[in-house]
Amino acid sequence: MVDALDDAVVPPKLRDHPSSSLATEGRNDPAYVIKDVPGKGKGLVAQRQIRKWEVVLVDYPVMLAHMGLFDVVGPELREDVLERALRQLPEEQQSDILSLARSTGGETIEDILRTNIFDVPLGLSYEDRKEELKNWGFSCTCTLCASSKKQRAASDKNRARLQDIYHELNDSASGKSNLTISIIEQLTEELESLVATEKLEAQLLVHYSAVARAYMRIAELDSARRYVELCEDLWVQYAGEEDDYLAGMHQLRHELNEREKKATIDGRRP
């Protein structure tokens, strides 16, 4: 648990971003303003047009806690550790943390952490989204969640089908089933259509990795390479070059390179 990260390892493009506390100069037209949103606490509200792929916020944690802390450490010890970590921070940062929203009614710091450090995964059904949002203490009123029961049911059906396609591709990649080129192409076309309908483009980076591995399994390496490259591009765009899971993309590339080397040795590639 630390007060601040070592700025020597922060990439310059993030360190110097106008919203960063490490930046020497701020920007005159910030993309957002913090406002009280009725029924939802504080939120970031856009106050100008935001370009696609524009970085609007860079920030650094003042307190780090291992997620396993809530599962393997008893409540009394957990409370002691969290309080000790909080006391090590400057008073201003302690106040900032204690001013954050609460929702569970439990021990103060743990309540704040549980309320503010979770996310809602893309692709969930309506009921699953509603359940996840209970941690934030409000109901979502976005266009999809506020749509009719019939529209939500259609959306849930699309999202369930996306998961089915993902598992079909993964089963083929792992050898549990044998999909032909034609079937892989059909599944890929269907998932792209469903992703567009549901506006879940960021999930393509996950689905394309399954497509790539399915093609690798049947030695269609040119097609596999195409989807590996698409996956890498999407990962950098949506997750960022510094994302913790970028190693997974490197592993995907490594698998492709190894298969291409073997195919060349076996005389199946020029």
Can you put this structure into words, describing what you see?
By secondary structure, the chain is mainly alpha-helical. Among the domains are: 69-116, no CATH class; 149-265, no CATH class. Helices cover 52% and strands 4% of the residues. The protein has helices at 12-15, 69-72, 75-87, 91-98, 108-116, 126-132, 149-173, 181-198, 204-217, 221-238, 246-265, and strands spanning 32-37, 41-46. A two-stranded antiparallel sheet has the order 1-2. Helix 9 (204-217) packs antiparallel against helix 10 (221-238). The longest helix is centred in the middle third of the chain and has 25 residues, at 149-173.
Question: What would a concise description of this structure say?
Answer:
It contains eleven helices and two strands, in the order H-E-E-H-H-H-H-H-H-H-H-H-H. Strands 1-2 form a two-stranded antiparallel ribbon.
Give the oligomeric state of the chains in this entry, treating copies of one chain as homo and distinct chains as hetero.
Answer: single chain
Strand order of the largest sheet: 1-2
Radius of gyration: 23 Å
**Helical/strand content category:** mainly alpha
Order of helices and strands: HEEHHHHHHHHHH
The residue-averaged pLDDT reads 82
Separation, N- and C-terminal Cα atoms: 53 Å
Helix content: 40-55%
Strand content: under 5%
| Count of beta strands | 2
Question: Main β-sheet: number of strands, strand sense, barrel status?
Answer: 2 strands, antiparallel
Q: Which term fits the overall shape?
A: globular
Number of helices: 11
Uncertain stretches: 1-6
